[in-house]
Amino acid sequence: MSASNYFRLSALPLNVKCRVAKFGAVPDEEIRRLRDLGLYRGSVASIIASVEEGPLLVAVGDARIAINREIAAEIKVLQTS
Questions:
Q1: For 71, how many CA atoms within 13 A lie in the half-sphere containing its CB?
Q2: Which has the higher per-residue pLDDT, 2 or 10?
Q3: Using CA atoms, how far apart are residues 54 and 45, in angstroms rounded to an integer?
Q4: Which CATH number do you get for residue 64?
Q5: What pLDDT was estimated at residue 44?
Q6: E strands along the chain, which residues?
Q7: How many domains does the chain have?
Q8: Residue 63 resides in a domain
Q9: pTM summary value
Q10: Containing domain of residue 13, as a range?
Q11: Can you tell me the mean pLDDT for 2-12?
Q12: Is the pLDDT of residue 81 over 70?
């Protein structure tokens, strides 16, 4: 699968399901935090709230996770059907 198929998590519209494909330039401690909260490679997520210049609220299973926009821009996802 080519990189052109990936989207930035931060670029997805609200309530569109995606599957996490890879983490770009995300610090290891942040990857550990996200993994502990249920967001890891292969997990299905969707953005449920977005405030301009603020963090994104992401749904992952039953969890809701706030993710900094700069971090979300480094998370590459594939849109699911």
A1: 19
A2: 10
A3: 19
A4: 2.30.30.90
A5: 97
A6: 7-8, 18-23, 44-50, 56-60, 63-67, 75-79
A7: 1
A8: yes
A9: 0.89
A10: 6-79
A11: 82
A12: no
Residue that is written with structure tokens 């590459």 in the block: 76
Number of Cβ within a 10 Å radius of residue 13 = 9
Residue 14 domain flag = yes
Selection from 3, 12, 2, 5 nearest residue 44 by Cα: 12
What pLDDT, in 10s, does the model give residues 46-78? 999 998 889 999 999 999 999 999 999 999 999
The DSSP secondary structure of 10-21, one letter per residue, reads GGSPTT--EEEE
Is the model's pLDDT at 34 over the cut of 90?
A: yes
55 Cα distance to chain centroid: 11
Confidence of residue 79 (pLDDT cuts 50, 70, 90): confident
Residue 1 domain flag: no
> CA 81, 38, 53, 15: dihedral to nearest 10 degrees?
30
CB-based contact 9:59 (threshold 8 Å):
no
